[in-house]
Every structure is written in C-alpha cells, then in structure tokens.
C-alpha cells in the first residue's frame, strides 16, 4: 500500500491510539490530534519509540476556526486519510440530561467530523485521493436507554457520510463509517460504571446482561478488527466503497 498521512482525532487514547499504532506499524505517518496537547505528544512519542512515524497537534474539533486553520498549520503534511474518532459519553435519563452536555456530545461527534471534512477535503480533491473514516458505533444503528445524545450523534454520522459520498463521486475520495459494538476502552470502562449505577446492577451484570447480551458472539470488538477494516478502506481495492456503514457487531443487528 502507498504510504499515507493519517490524521486521527481523539488519537491520544482508546480506539484512536489503537488505530494510530496499527497505521504506524503499516508504515504510514500518523498525526495524533487531541484536545489535550500533552496526551497527544505522549502518544506520538510512544509510536516513535516503536520506530513509527508520528507527530502531535492540539485541536478542539468543535472550534471552527481552529479546525479551518489545520491545513495551513500542517504545511507540507498533506492529509490523505482523515479518521474522525474523537468522542465522549454521558449516560443519563433525558429528564436529567444537562443541556450543555447534550450539545457538547453533538458538537464533538457530529459537528466536528463535518468541520474536519470541510478543512481537508479540498486538498484530497487536489490530490485526487482521500479516505474519510468515521468511527461510529453500534449506536449508529440501534439505541440504548440513557444515551440520547450519543445515539443521536452516531446516527447522524451515517447520514453525513452518505451525503458526502454523493458530493465526492467525481474523484477518488471515499467516506465510510465503522460501527463496532462495544470495544474495551477507557470510555467503555466508564460506561460500565455509569450503567451499573443507573440500572442498579453490578459491573459484571452490565457487561453480560446489557453490553454483550444482544451479541450472538458475546465478545468485545478488538482494536485489530477496527484498524484492519480501516486499512482495507484506505486501499485501492475499496475505491468504490463509499457512503457505507461497516458493521462489526458480532451479529447484534442480525436479530
């Protein structure tokens, strides 16, 4: 595969960092973008210590001015692949959901990907190559109680990807959304604790009765599965796969 420059939001930890590590091992240069500059630099340094190629940049994906300035800030580093991964979670009944927190989730996980696509798409068109990969969720397809903002944002990513796929049909740019069931990351670990409190269950009961219960395979999705699927979408063999929802759910939505 041609070596690419991969820009990953929320790349300092969790799914983002796991994908960054895999991309660097495949020979790509990864730009770790995170709202926490120190965390982004630590992640980049970890990759460099493993003989990978990485750099770090601080960005608030909700800040339109910051995002628009990224192509000029990166200068000669032309982004070929954008991975919209940044995300947060808040678990609450809608009656008690803080309005500012609801808005924050939408801004990070739906508005942010739109702003980043807007920033990097012109150069992708100029190069006649680009891959935009959104990290969605099983909650892009189904819902769970107490996650109204997260579910709304992740559902929105699918409509966004379909629209941009139509707008980029004239060039070798694709946009797709990876939709995994639960991946064992720090974000999910926090969800387990929150769900246990909200549902009056033990954490083990949350894992078995809520998270893995709908999955015939009864397994958390691995980072390797996500990074390998992303790598395929970057390849020339995937040049006509666009606007699609790539579901890694252990059979959840087959029910």
TrEMBL record:
InterPro entries noted in UniProt: 3-OHbutyrate_DH (IPR011294), NAD(P)-bd_dom_sf (IPR036291), Sc_DH/Rdtase_CS (IPR020904), SDR (IPR050259), SDR_fam (IPR002347)
Name under which the protein is recorded: 3-hydroxybutyrate dehydrogenase
GO biological process, one term: monocarboxylic acid metabolic process
GO molecular function annotation: 3-hydroxybutyrate dehydrogenase activity
Family: Belongs to the short-chain dehydrogenases/reductases (SDR) family.
Signal sequence, start to end: none
SUPFAM superfamilies: NAD(P)-binding Rossmann-fold domains
Domain of life where this protein originates: Bacteria
Pfam families (alphabetical): adh_short_C2
